[in-house]
Amino acid sequence: MTRVRVTAPHASPRTPVRGGQRPLESREAAQDSEVGQVFVRSLIRSQLRLALVVAGGFLLILAAFPLILVMAPGLDDTRIAGIPFGWLLLGVGIYPVIGLSAWLYVRTAARNEARYRDLAGEQ
Amino acid sequence: MNSERGNTERTGGARMNAGIAITAVAVVSLATAIIGFYGLRISRTTGDFYVASRTVRPWWNASAIGGEYLSAASFLGVAGLILLSGTDALWFPVGYTAGYLMLLLFVAAPLRRSGAYTIPDFTESRLASQTVRRVTSLVVVMVGWLYIVPQLHGAALTIHIATGLPSWVGSVAVVVVVCLTVVAGGMRSITFVQAFQYWLKLTALAVPILFIIFVLAGHGTEPQSPPAVNPTGLAPAGLYQNVSLLVALLFGTLGLPHVLVRFYTNPDGHSARRTTLIVLGLLSVFYLFPTAYGLVARMFAPDLARSGQPDAMVLRLPGQLVGGMPGDLLTALVVAGAFAAFLSTTSGLVVSLAGVISQDVLGGSVRGFRLAAVVSAVVPLGFAFMTGSLALAGSVGLVFAFTASTVCPVLLLGIWWRGLTDAGAIAGMVTGGVLCGGAMIVGALPASGPTPAWLAQPAAWSVPAAFAVMVIVSRATQHRIPGTMPRIMTRLHTPERPLATER
User: Fold this and answer.
1) Where is the region Disordered (chain A) (predicted)?
2) Using H for helix, E for strand and C for coil, what is the string for B286-333?
3) What phi and psi values does residue B135 have, to the nearest 5 degrees?
4) A9 occurs within a structural domain
5) Which of A19, A102, A117 minimises the CB distance to B498?
């Protein structure tokens, strides 16, 4: 299926572009309509909400790690293979949490974009 | 300064085999130069020079980002700080890595989609203002220079300890190799160089520490001191310091110029995210090793903390705990990795600074880029000669605080908030820069007592202040929101191929 985009000519002659900037392309112009902007706004909102939720969740876990050590003082002295538990928690245990947050985000962000594509494509 | 270092060195550590160490440095420099010259043949246009034509594969690109990001602070400084202050210092590697998570969440894909080469390009097109561009360029160049200085300090320290040569040889060697590589090959070859250097750095940290652990376990060596005890009797950090440090590291990463420029080498926004995901994995693996060095040194060689140069711990540990010929070889490997760290971070910064300077001052030609590259590398060399070296991880932490107070707010608000105006952006960047820069200057002045925590770690108040000023001034100047804003927002956030089928 081919889609024909109808766009208005640019109102004013463009000033020469500097550096690596491209002129605004038809991709953006196609979303100039009111409906298009509604879709774009809703995409931005959902991506921002997703980013804030993942960041907030990660920061909560990050704050919880030292709290665990404060709450259970005996835990810090526990050793696993000669390494104190506190060191394992902060020096090793946080990285899988970071990786998991990142993976969840990338997956969901791509899904948000796929939903946007469907909506914008039907328009 | 140099004679002072010489004295602590003689009293502090075991003698190292200078010949092997010099060979190691020469091999790394030569390998860097060869890969750089090889790249010369495939980079011909200005586009190649700036962003490697956006054709670099995700794994190469991720390795290159990792290679560029892991600086002297990560390679030497983190382990040294962990040796000094134990679990308090673990927030450094955690913050460096989590900063990348924030970059992924808030910046990676939109910035790639903006289609700009540099941060000033981005702010100019988003806010339609030449003045914003100039202010951003100024801030970016300051950040870059501030960041190169600790790399050169690290090189000076490493060369002096490993070979006994005067400290300045190390700084000059780094600047010369970086200038040659960047001038010769631009970003395409830099990408290969950086990718190679990530794996070199990882090997150079991992092999010696694993060897040391096997030797210690094999001999059944008893620890000299428990890991919870600070070898120099340093007081534990307060809650404010840890929180402020985390704010700096989490929000500073997403404004670093050399990190951002890397995202333009991805073909589209989605691949920029995938690349960042791989980078997070690479960083997580890497930071296990400085942590291991710190822990082993606390338990088995706490006297290294008392030499007055904790940053040199990684270089001295193999000689102290293994010794003999194996110790010399392991030390040479660590020295090679450390040099890779100085070279890769410095060249990444020089490339991004040269991009900014040549476009703003010299008109964006390849010749201008080369000239700008030399300027970007030589100026911080002067700074490095004039200043004494602080703890590497600490001085890099301050650069992150400065970035978080200036570049970070304009990027975050520019990407996510429609109401940002040029006046707001300038007011916010100036506020953050003055507050954080002022705290850094006051903190560096010779004072009677120890620097209070709120001055030593300014991020917790300077970052919110910059954000607040940016928002308030933008609100007051709403009429200045540029007419191009809706289209720019669409470009930043919508996928490149609106009709592409889902994978």
Assistant:
1) 1-29
2) HHHHHHHHHHHHHHHCHHHHHHCCHHHHHHHHHHHHCCHHHHHHHHHH
3) -65, -45
4) no
5) A117
Instruction: Quote the number of domains for chain A.
Output: 1
Considering the entire predicted model, what is its pTM? Answer: 0.84
Residues in chain B within 8 Å Cβ distance of A55: 101-102, 105-106
3.20.20.70, 1.10.760.10, 1.20.1740.10, 3.30.450.20: CATH of B2-393: 1.20.1740.10
Tokens standing for residue B421: 């105006």
Task: Name every chain B residue with its beta carbon within 8 A of the beta carbon of A21.
Answer: 115-116, 121, 124-125
Residue A39 in domain: yes
The answer to whether residue A53 sits within a structural domain is yes
pLDDT digits 0-9 by tens, A7-40: 443 433 334 444 344 444 556 666 667 777 888 8
Nearest by CB to B277, which of A19, A103, A121? A103
Substitution target in B51, B85, B104, B484 with the highest count of A β-carbons within 10 Å is B104
CB pairs under 8 A between A and B: 147
Beta-carbon separation of A22 and B104 below 8 A: no
Which of A37, A83, A102 is closest, CB to CB, to B277? A102
- Note the pLDDT tens digit of each residue in B89-136: 888 899 999 998 999 999 888 888 887 778 888 899 899 888 999 999
